Automatic annotation (TrEMBL):
List of residues binding ATP: G119, S120, N121, G122, K123, T124, T125
Cellular-component GO terms for this entry: cytoplasm
Gene: murD
Organism: Planococcus salinus
Source species taxonomy: Bacteria, Bacillati, Bacillota, Bacilli, Bacillales
Designated name of the protein: UDP-N-acetylmuramoylalanine--D-glutamate ligase
EC class: ligase
Length: 454
């Protein structure tokens, strides 16, 4: 871990604990900073706060004192989820105190270079794919960031022969100043998180921070099929590496209906790739480009693409049983995500959907409901989903109460050649504590039902 003169013996406020705040506070203390942690959770309910206090960190829990910024802090490191409308963040910005997310800290202390991945969709799949490609080629990758592993904790232990493959959200990137990945990836860009950013412009600018500090010795991999992304790429100083779904090109990574190409040469037939859908094709091309830039081999890339079944709960392939392919897309908690899943399969879908009623529109699904052979629906939205599907012309509809019933009905309503897809288009909280638990229930039900019917 590099030492940082800019934090040594400086007064630093870490706002919000959780995983990233706790790790950042611990590292800053280790680097010789005078750290104060402020978190809304009561001290007695926060083992993280208790551990930091034992280390000698000043801890203020259960409240956010309005005059806290009057104590001479020279830097604020905030949890990415805390909005910039927060009164303490606003006060810091008015005083021209830098406000970091821990990604900035991770970059500054790391002995290893970074590959940064962002985008409105596909970050996790691209990050995971790239990690597997580099790992199988023995490139010593480490995985970090929004994917669940705190980047500064990974960077603390990274060596010069590692590379940190990092998933980055707009929330994290907004709080960066010097962060400069050697390879940056922007998978795509759609309107999102306006409740946090306030405007499309702020959201877009935060995403573009991933390439802001790159130079001509770095690489920017981007979706050339999106004009807003291509326009940004034209302003970048890094070497540009576009990818496109609009047919074979003689440069970079491209795809047509049958093949993925590298520099115009066939790389792999699309039919041999386990990940389904155009959205995953974007992720595949981005990860492939980065792997090749880092010295990965085409043989390894092909091996990964013909074996990788997907990130758990994100269009994850489960099993091919008696000609029926089962996919777990429990992460699809809104109609846009389920639309992407339906796009991946041309016909004969048995769709399992439903969940928490938040009165979100289902209309984005309408153009793809003709691909749905049968709808199995559950949860608070079951009746509304059934009515919507019926209005779209779906005649075979079953309403169930449990995941076991859903899978049993799906099997009974399906035949060889069908796709059985859990893609709920709704949050899980009416029946499950998380989409992960819902997805695990589906996997368990599939295993139980298929084994019982062998």
């Amino acid at each position: 871990m590099k030492q940082l003169k800019q934090v040594y013996q400086k007064k630093i406020l870490v706002l919000g604990l959780a995983k990233s705040g706790f790790t950042a506070a611990r590292i800053l203390h280790k680097l010789g900073a005078f750290v104060t942690v402020n978190d809304s959770k009561p001290f007695e309910e926060s083992p993280e706060a208790q551990e930091l206090l034992n280390l000698g960190v000043t801890v203020i829990c259960g409240r956010h004192p309005q005059g806290l910024l009057e104590e001479g802090f020279e830097l604020v490191v905030k949890n990415p989820g805390i909005p910039y409308s927060n009164i303490l963040i606003q006060a810091a910005l008015e005083k021209e105190i830098p406000v970091w997310t821990e990604i900035e800290l991770a970059y500054l202390i790391s002995e290893a270079p970074f590959i940064g991945i962002t985008g409105s969709n596909g970050k996790t799949t691209t990050t995971t794919l790239l990690f597997h490609m580099l790992n199988q080629d023995e490139k010593k990758p480490l995985i970090a960031g929004n994917i669940g592993t705190v980047a500064s904790g990974v960077a603390e232990k990274a060596k010069t022969d590692n590379v940190i493959v990092t998933e980055l959200s707009s929330f994290q990137l907004k709080g960066t100043y010097q962060f400069r990945p050697h390879i940056a990836i922007l998978t795509n860009l759609y309107e999102a998180h306006l409740d946090y950013h306030g405007t499309v412009e702020d959201y877009t600018a935060s995403k573009f921070n991933i390439s802001r500090n790159q130079t001509e010795t770095d690489y920017f991999i981007y979706n050339a099929d999106q004009p807003v992304v291509a326009d940004h790429a034209a302003t970048c100083k890094a070497q540009l590496v576009p990818f496109t779904l609009k047919g074979k090109t003689d440069t970079s990574i491209s795809a047509d209906d049958k093949w993925i190409y590298c520099q115009g040469e066939p790389l792999i037939e699309r039919s041999k790739i386990l990940l389904a859908g155009l959205h995953n094709l974007e992720n595949i091309m981005a990860a492939t480009a980065a792997a090749l830039l880092w010295g990965g081999t085409k043989e390894t890339i092909i091996r990964v693409l013909t074996s990788f079944t997907g990130v758990k709960h994100r269009s994850q392939f489960i099993v091919n049983w008696k000609g029926r392919k089962f996919y777990n897309d429990s992460k699809a908690t809104n109609a846009l995500a389920t639309k992407s899943a339906l796009e991946a399969f041309p016909s004969n879908i048995v769709l399992l959907a439903g969940g928490l009623e938040r009165n979100h529109s289902l209309e984005e699904l309408r153009p793809y409901m003709n691909r749905v052979k049968t709808l199995i629906t559950f949860g608070e939205t079951a009746d509304r989903f059934s009515e919507f599907a019926r209005n779209c012309g779906v005649e075979s509809i079953a309403k169930v109460s449990t995941m076991d019933e859903a899978v049993e009905n799906a099997i009974n309503h399906s035949a060889s050649g069908d796709t059985i897809l859990l893609s709920p288009a709704c949050a899980s909280w009416d029946q499950y504590e998380s989409f992960e638990i819902r997805g695990d229930a589906f996997i368990n039900a599939v295993q139980k039902m298929t084994e019982a019917n062998e």
